[in-house]
Amino acid sequence: MRTAVARLVPHLRTLLVVVLSVMPLAQGQVIPIRKLPGSVVAPLTARGISGQFVVSGASISTPRPGIIPEMSTDAVEVELEPQWLAVAAERTKQAVLARFNLSDRWQGKIHLYIRPKRELGDAAIRIVPVSFPGGWQFRVDVPDRVEWRRLVRALVEVVVLELANRDAGDQVGLPPLWLNEGLSFLVIADQGRDLVLQGNTSVLRNQRKPSLLNEARQGLAGRTPLLFSELSFPADSLASNPQAWAVFQASSALLMHELLVEESGRQAMATFLRLLPRHLNWQTGFIEAHRPRFLSPLDVEKWWAVNSAHVLGRDPSLLWTPEATLAQLSSILVESAEFGGTTNSPGQRRSLPLAEVVLRWDGSVQREVMRRKEAQLRQLYQHAPTDLLPVVTEGYRTIQQYAAERFGRESETLRRSELESRYRVVAARAARRLRELERKVAALQAAAAPRR
């Protein structure tokens, strides 16, 4: 009997060593893989501390004992490893949750796959939603060498996607571009380079934390922030124009800052995210979440016109007086044209209300007029005093919406009879709004006129 037990002792020792070696895996730790000459490196798997993030990828850096290279805060590209990416994901999520004042109650897992940059190139980081019986999960393919701001933007986007799609449904609710970009801007301004770690390096900290307003002003480069309608419907060519993209990002950041500055706004935006999967377009969910603060997109436009000017501040020397602003706005709401005239007598030049132009003039002539009026109102917006920004924005929004409905690409798919009916409805609605705006401007001019 003793001989049999003695024979088992070496085997029991071997079994104990094996058990002890795999214990760290049960605790969620990463066991580094020792590379042998000529061997294939198997992927590592790391998990974030919350358990939501699962990161897979191979180790690409080789530790050098006794040598810790320094890396300045200006370093753009970082080398990713699973354990460091898991930490970056957790930090980014906490920064996002803090902006909405939410606790961490995640439901859908986020799988991050580190792949060689030679395979992915410089294309946008792809986020793929995957439907499971218990809800949505998300896959993100990340290059092993990536610009850290680009990585943070992708992490913010996938965290927001998970927040918006916790109620399992047939379709994925997609947040608008301005929300993703604006929130990323705020998160980076708050945390900066500390969001993304890199192994075997020391990061120099010799700079002050950047100011959100300074960063936004730099992105705007002297321009006024984009209108809410311009942020809601960005052009397809936006990403290919660096200057336009910088203006879009800065404007989105200022909009998100103003929407989240108060507790009621943070609650409304959290509700908006939850409503995204229930609506075909995000505008409906946005208005529903923000009632009774906003009843229509025009209310949002007016609010944003005032707040964007207030948060940035404008040069008082460039602002016009209320009288000059109202006079210019009144002149924009009319169009001069030549009427009558025969072979022997010249025509007479008269002013026609813009509402009549919308109802009576040919579409090909209207297109150029509306384009010119949009540019004039855009210019007036930069000089109008703060209390008149809503009425200037109302005029811009009315003309912009009419031009989009009257000359948009959707009309190309309609038959002639359908087009005529559509044009009449669109023109009647725009003319009614323009007449209301004319009366409003006239009342403001009468109130601003000096009393005798």
CA(first)-CA(last) distance: 122 Å
CATH topology label of the largest domain: Neutral Protease, domain 2
> Into which percentage range does the β-strand content fall?
5-15%
The amount of helix comes to 40-55%
* Count of β-strands: 11
Mean pLDDT: 80
The succession of helices and strands, N to C, reads HEEEEHEHEEEHHEHHHHHHHEEHHHH
Keywords:
12% strand, elongated, 452 residues, two-stranded parallel sheet, Neutral Protease, domain 2, alpha/beta, 5-stranded mixed beta sheet, 2 domains
Task: Give the secondary structure arrangement, pairings included.
Elements: H1 2-26, E1 44-47, E2 53-57, E3 70-71, E4 77-79, H2 82-100, E5 110-115, H3 117-120, E6 127-132, E7 135-143, E8 145-147, H4 148-164, H5 177-191, E9 202-203, H6 212-220, H7 228-232, H8 242-259, H9 263-275, H10 282-289, H11 297-312, H12 322-332, E10 334-339, E11 348-353, H13 354-360, H14 363-383, H15 389-407, H16 416-448
Parallel strand pairs: 2-5, 3-9, 5-7
Antiparallel strand pairs: 1-2, 4-8, 6-7, 10-11
Helix pairs in contact: 2-4, 2-5, 4-5, 4-9, 5-8, 6-8, 8-11, 9-10, 11-15, 12-14, 12-16, 13-16, 14-15, 15-16
